[in-house]
Amino acid sequence: MGAGAVVLVLVVLGVAVAAARELRRAAPDPRGRAAVARDFVVTTLAWPFYLPLVLAGSESAPSSAPGGRRSTRAETARIDRAEADLDETLRALSGVALDALRAELPRLRGLAAGLRPWAERVATLDAELARPECDRAQLDRALAELSARGFGEQDARVVSVRARRASLERLVVLRAHAAEALERALLELEELTTELRVLRFAVEVPGDDALERLRHLAASVAAVRDAVLATRS
Amino acid sequence: MTTSALHDTLPLPPHDTQHAAPPEPQGGALDLVLHGQAELDRQLLQPERLLGLTERLLALSVIGLVVHGAIIALVAAALADVSLTAAVAVPAALVVAFLAALAICLPSFWFYTQIAGLDASFRLIVVQALRVQATTSALLLGALPVFAAVALATRLGVGPEPETVLTIGLAMPFLVGLRGLSALRRSFRALVEVLPITHLRRPGFVSRLTLAWGAVYSAVAPVALWRALDLFDPELARVVLRALGG
């Protein structure tokens, strides 16, 4: 295959990616035809950089539900790891550290388990967002079509579609908040496990400020417990 | 790392429930790569911003390479009697070579990142690759006065041989690219805190990941540059070949 044929193949691929980008646009581009033409040329010339974006979905759509589900699976695996790490660390405690934390041990062991319902909630929201009627691009297309047919903002059909879109946005925000709360609680749990590991060795060093560390750790335990309880409410 | 510091690294949820995409922050791609790398990391985690980021970083990459190529061509015309058509050929060769090499390497970049245990999307890998090139291009613009000074010294008879000057000019994107790789390493270190993790990693894996990115690109880019230069401006390619002892 000569250089000309290679260039031809690359241009054909570029045109295909640029056309796919235009077809997947959720709504008509408000910037006008010149901008659309510019986008088409740039995408044709630099198509390898645009192909992943085109394959990922419409330009206005934020992170899609399938990506969210994959993230939730990763978070569930992370909860498993955090639970195993914490359990192992608690079993290794002894001496002063064990005495100081004995009263907290049952609650500490339940911390990771307390995060599972929250991960399930994120997964449920993901499943809800993956439903066909929650397709943001489809709602945008419906709005654009109604607008093209001359229906104004006060028309009942436009109002109805806008209300559905607003509900969808609320679901997206709820999902983001749930995922963020879960992430924060997980990070705090991992931080707590690390502190417990440090403490285990710190109390074995003569003259170290182990008691101060114990007090600090007790405060951390209370903070993490509160964080996990907050995610349950 | 304290709990509050950890919170600062987390991506923020959307604030406005009525609009899908938050407003674009002020500042162009040049601001982002020069003193807004942390902001760039934040935007990387917002899928709705990735298209805009791709376009801005791509534009900055092209501008930097075009300007650098044009200066090399002017220096070649002044020092080595290369024809002025190089003013078009060299920028074109640089843009085609470096962006084509980047595009060829993208699947490898994604593969290495997955092997390293970071579940980064292909879109994020694309933007990270363009961030390295855009950072390199921005720094090339800053390094141009130094290159021009060396060329001027040669013109006055106190600098290195003209062929050597041209070779330095063509090698500059690779040297400056090390700074781009450094930005990539810092970015991955920040992203480790928030990206999904597929398996446990050994310490220092981010440095090895960055090294793998740099190694595969360093193997592809010089070949791409040589082929593009030979295609667009064979005369200059021969001059460089002489400087390299070929």
Q: Could you list some keywords that capture this structure?
A:
heterodimer, A: 233 residues, mainly alpha, 9 helices, 0% strand, elongated, B: 246 residues, 75% helix, disordered N terminus
Would you give an account of this structure?
The complex is a heterodimer of chains A (233) and B (246). Chain A is an all-alpha fold. Chain A has 9 helices and no strands. In chain A, helix 1 (3-23) packs across helix 2 (33-45). Mean pLDDT of chain A is 76; it is low at 60-69. Chain B is an all-alpha fold and 246 residues long. Chain B has helices spanning 3-9, 29-35, 37-44, 50-80, 86-115, 122-155, 162-191, 205-232, 234-243. The longest helix of chain B has 34 residues, at 122-155. Chain B is elongated. The N and C termini of chain B lie far apart (54 Å). The chains are: A mainly alpha (233), B mainly alpha (246). The A-B interface holds A 3, 42, 46, 48-50, 52-53, 55-56, 59-64, 67, 70-71, 74-75, 78, 81, 136, 166, 169-170, 172-173, 176-177, 180, 183-184, 187-188, 191, 223 and B 1, 3, 6-7, 10-14, 17-21, 46-48, 50-51, 54-55, 58, 99, 103, 106, 119, 121-123, 125-126, 130, 194, 196-198, 200, 231.
Summarize the structure in short.
The complex is a heterodimer of chains A (233) and B (246). Chain A is mainly alpha-helical.
Write the topology of this structure.
The complex is a heterodimer of chains A (233) and B (246).
Chain A: H1 3-23, H2 33-45, H3 47-56, H4 65-92, H5 95-101, H6 105-129, H7 136-148, H8 156-202, H9 210-232
Helix pairs in contact in A: 1-2, 1-3, 2-3, 4-6, 4-8, 6-8, 6-9, 7-8, 8-9
Chain B: H1 3-9, H2 29-35, H3 37-44, H4 50-80, H5 86-115, H6 122-155, H7 162-191, H8 205-232, H9 234-243
Helix pairs in contact in B: 2-3, 2-6, 4-5, 4-6, 4-7, 5-6, 5-8, 6-7, 7-8, 7-9, 8-9
